[in-house]
Amino acid sequence: MKIDCIGDVHGCMKELKELFQKLGYEWRKEIPIHPDGRLPAFVGDLTDRGPNSLEVIHLVHELVMVQQKGYYVPGNHCNKLYRFFKGNNVQQTHGLETTVAEYEALTAQEQEKVRGKFMELYEQSPLYLELPKVNAVIAHAGIREDLIGKHNKEARTFVLYGDVTGEVHANGMPVRRDWAAHYAGRRWIIYGHTPVEKPRFKNKTVNIDTGCIFGGALSSFRLPEEDIVSVPSYQEKVPEKFRTFED
């Protein structure tokens, strides 16, 4: 098994296409296929903030659900969009408003199609993905060793939002513990959620959300090679969105 884990896309379709090209994928029947049988695995947060969220939904649904040529796990933005599509009263903030604007510009028929595709993708995908053949677990915001195998409320909160304390910083961002610094497992944990300037390797974990939507890069972690492939973002740089760690 050969896997290309892909960080938070957030509607950045142009960068995603360039990343697939750099990784050696070829477009066949409107989806990227690798000649060596490699498969992409998305760490969640496909939508929001970026310019082409609905196009990303169509592509990932086709890859994962229809052609079964890839993997996906949901992120917190995916969860919020899912709740919006279910008719829940969610706040259209933190980027959801961009996806909703795209959605509301469609005809009713087109809306039903994209809504159905995303809900199917979300409902039929695992909370986190265990890949024993490459000794890895893919989880949007990461996962503690003791939570692997569990799907309770604690595991769900951790996987979608990280190791949150319940407090918030002055800028409104949630306070999160640095769980990766204490990870002692033997499996790779590949995650995103928290934008970093470059992929962060800590113990046997790697954060591949290199802030494409904030002007950084879209990154992939390849297994079993254990290397990084990235393409630069076309978005405007927003330095304050990137987190730094004292490693």
From TrEMBL:
Q: The organism sits in which domain of life?
A: Bacteria
**Domain Calcineurin-like phosphoesterase, chain residue ranges per copy:** 1-196
UniProt cross-references to InterPro entries, sorted A to Z: Ap4A_hydrolase (IPR050126), Calcineurin-like_PHP (IPR004843), Metallo-depent_PP-like (IPR029052), MPP_PrpE-like (IPR041780), Ser/Thr-sp_prot-phosphatase (IPR006186)
Q: Which residues form the signal peptide?
A: none
- What is any Pfam family matched here? Metallophos
Q: Which NCBIfam families match?
A: PRK13625.1 (NF010148)
Instruction: Kindly give the PANTHER family that the UniProt entry links to this protein.
Output: BIS(5'-NUCLEOSYL)-TETRAPHOSPHATASE PRPE [ASYMMETRICAL], METALLOPHOSPHOESTERASE
Q: What is the recorded name of this protein?
A: Bis(5'-nucleosyl)-tetraphosphatase PrpE
